[in-house]
Amino acid sequence: MSYTSTAFDIVRPTPFAAHPSTSAGTARADRRAPAWLHGIRLHADGVTVDRSTHRETGIRRLPVWAWRALMLRPATPVHKFNLHPIDSVEYDLDIDYIGDGQKIHRLDVLVPKRTDAVAAPLPVYVYFHGGGWTSGDKDPLTKYCASQAAEGMIVINANYRMATRFQLGHMMQDGNAVLDWVARNVAAYGGDPTRIVLGGDSAGGHIAALLTAAAYAPELAEHYGIRPPVTARHLRGLVQHCSIADFSVLFDRGFVLSLNFVRMLLPERGRGLHLRTAARFMSPIEWLDRGFPPVFVTTSERDYFYRANLNFIEALRARKIWVDTLIYGRRSVNTKHTWQQDDSHPESQEVYRRLGAFVRAVAPRAVVAV
């Protein structure tokens, strides 16, 4: 297993697997290498990959219908990701955060069991599932969210309206409604509404990043007709799992998604709009502010949105925004798009460990003066 790992911009040593030609007792010597060199990623095995020519997959310009087919999974009584549930966590499932009785407007609250009678409030991790904006559901993410709750946080796992019936504006309104529910209700579960971290995988990560940006950019919030219910200073961090915070990659030749994904997310399919101009309001990377909270990015060379993640990391660093990264090379076969959901992989367990450390670092308990 090879990965490049940085913690708050401090490069960590990268573990090396033994080279096939070496003896069993001899491993390749450990070397330290910078994670990024002027847009070129230096891997643990010494191979450099030019971001401009790197291709995450052989698939190009996938139409919306084909992506939906790729993302859809057969319904099962218990999703495979949720086998062997975590019993150190309490589950409050399918809460209607809008009040319309619709499944797409439900959220779960996962709370670690605590024995102390007067427990200090915990940080809150709000999570949005992925699925290419067209599919997906919170339910398969229950085990993932429980794993994070067990690390000492209140986790909110939310559904939202999806394309092609709905557009990005609807998703932003739903995400904003989730945050409003959290601000009003999470204290009753032992959560601290002033220590919130947003996160998501794939399209859900995109929504989380755009909601974070909207808290800092009134123009962006106004564009989507939302009034952020959580002040920017209470958004302590952002987690991105195989997300797409840079929409410019959709205009690259050979990218996995077609431009119809941009049109699909716009009102009236973007009729009469210049797509590149419209995409600015869809691309969190365009709205980074020096006050933007710390970010934890996990991706791999097998991720469909690998290039978008590299671009986002570079933009964050250029603006001196605190960013922690966990990036696996192509040799890590378990790290396909949104692998983080499957807790059976050691790579996923490393994500959980690092995510817990990230939340504790960016949303620490307030020190009370005595």
Automatic annotation (TrEMBL):
This is Acetyl esterase/lipase. Signal peptide: none annotated. Residues 126-323 form the Alpha/beta hydrolase fold-3 domain. Coiled coil: none annotated. The keyword Hydrolase applies. Keywords: Hydrolase. InterPro entries: AB_hydrolase_3 (IPR013094), AB_hydrolase_fold (IPR029058), GDXG_lipolytic_enzyme (IPR050300).
